[in-house]
């Protein structure tokens, strides 16, 4: 039986017909194969489908298209992928990073700054982090104080293939009553940004009976800064930002050295002494640069 081919059945277009077994050299009635597959013009990637009468060639689609069904649900077709597209990812490897923060700060005093990011050669995409300044702690009473909120952080991926420069703004940390005695609320941190692509707002300052709110943000990914703590007895730690940086606590008599401000957008630590240093941390911006 080596010269025989077992065939169970063949589809004629309207019915399934049993053909039995064929011997070498046998012929098949053309009516059994009237709906033959197309062979002319078919190339790699094409799709063949049956339209009810004949086999039809659907030419291959283009990159990123998906195979779907037409509006009449009668045949397949190529279409663009549906659904909201996320931000593009970096197209190449990380080549460099640029860190922006105030450079002339004395004793951690709040200070903002403005810079210009200039695209390095070969860079097409950047991933940016923008964190606002932290809120300052209150100086309400000898035994009762509140910490501010940390700055919010925005993270965005930006296609800079057609961009040469971007303005970078660094928000200042909040201040409090460093020389005005008791009864002073902490002030708010201010906003950091990378152009309009990523904005981290400052945390609010600590108040009489409650801590400050964490700063909000605007970007592809947004991280609200941690909220402060209220009614702290004899001081308390400041709140961390995305980077950390909450100032340490200081009890009675411990607030004169300026040793517990916030950093990198964290809020200042609370102290139960008048004339204390409880600044919020200045904001920061980090730019990761990709080919």
Structural description of this entry:
About 2% of the residues have low confidence. The chain has a 5-stranded antiparallel β-sheet with strand order 9-20-11-13-18, with no helix packed on it. A 5-stranded antiparallel β-sheet has the order 10-14-15-16-17, with no helix packed on it. It has a two-stranded antiparallel ribbon with strand order 1-4. It folds into 2 domains: 77 residues, no CATH class; 204 residues, no CATH class. A hairpin with a 3-residue loop joins β15 and β16. The protein is mostly beta strands.
Mean pLDDT: 77
Tell me the number of structural domains. 2
* Rg, Cα atoms, Å: 34 Å
**How are helices and strands ordered from N to C?**
EEEEEEEEEEEEEEEEEEEE
Q: End-to-end span in angstroms? A: 65 Å
Helix content range: under 10%
- Can you tell me the overall shape? elongated
Report the sheet with the most strands, covering strand number, pairing sense and barrel closure. Answer: 5 strands, antiparallel
Class derived from helix and strand content: mainly beta
What strand order characterises the main sheet? Answer: 9-20-11-13-18
Tell me the strand percentage band. Answer: 25-35%
Taking pLDDT < 50 over at least 5 consecutive residues as the criterion, the unreliable ranges are: 254-258
Counting DSSP E segments of at least 2 residues, the number of strands comes to 20
Main attributes?
single chain, 291 residues, mainly beta, 2 domains, 5-stranded antiparallel sheet, 20 strands, 29% strand, elongated
């Amino acid at each position: 039986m080596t010269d025989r081919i077992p065939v169970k059945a063949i589809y004629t277009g309207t019915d399934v017909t049993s053909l039995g077994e064929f011997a070498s050299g046998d012929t098949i009635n053309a009516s059994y194969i009237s709906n033959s597959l197309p062979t002319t013009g078919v190339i790699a990637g094409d799709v063949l489908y049956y339209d009810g009468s004949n086999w039809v060639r659907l030419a291959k689609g283009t990159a990123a298209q998906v195979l779907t069904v037409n509006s009449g649900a009668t045949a397949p077709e190529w279409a663009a992928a549906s659904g909201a597209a996320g931000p593009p990812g970096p197209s190449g490897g990380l080549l460099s990073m640029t860190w922006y923060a105030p450079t002339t700060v004395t004793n951690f005093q709040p200070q903002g700054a403005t810079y210009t990011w200039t695209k390095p050669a070969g860079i097409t995409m950047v991933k940016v982090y923008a964190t606002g300044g932290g809120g300052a702690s209150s100086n309400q009473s000898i035994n009762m104080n509140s910490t501010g909120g940390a700055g919010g952080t925005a993270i965005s991926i930006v296609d800079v293939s057609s961009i040469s420069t971007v303005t970078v703004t660094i928000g200042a940390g909040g201040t409090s009553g460093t020389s005005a005695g008791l009864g002073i609320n902490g002030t708010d941190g201010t906003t950091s940004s990378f152009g309009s692509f990523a904005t981290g707002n400052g945390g609010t300052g600590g108040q009489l009976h409650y801590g400050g709110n964490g700063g909000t943000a605007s970007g592809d990914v947004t991280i609200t800064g941690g909220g402060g703590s209220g009614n702290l007895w004899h001081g308390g730690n400041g709140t961390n930002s995305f980077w950390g940086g909450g100032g340490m606590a200081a009890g009675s008599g411990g607030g004169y050295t300026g040793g517990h401000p916030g950093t990198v957008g964290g809020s200042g630590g609370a102290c139960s002494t008048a004339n204390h240093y409880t600044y919020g941390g200045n904001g920061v911006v980090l730019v990761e640069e990709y080919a």
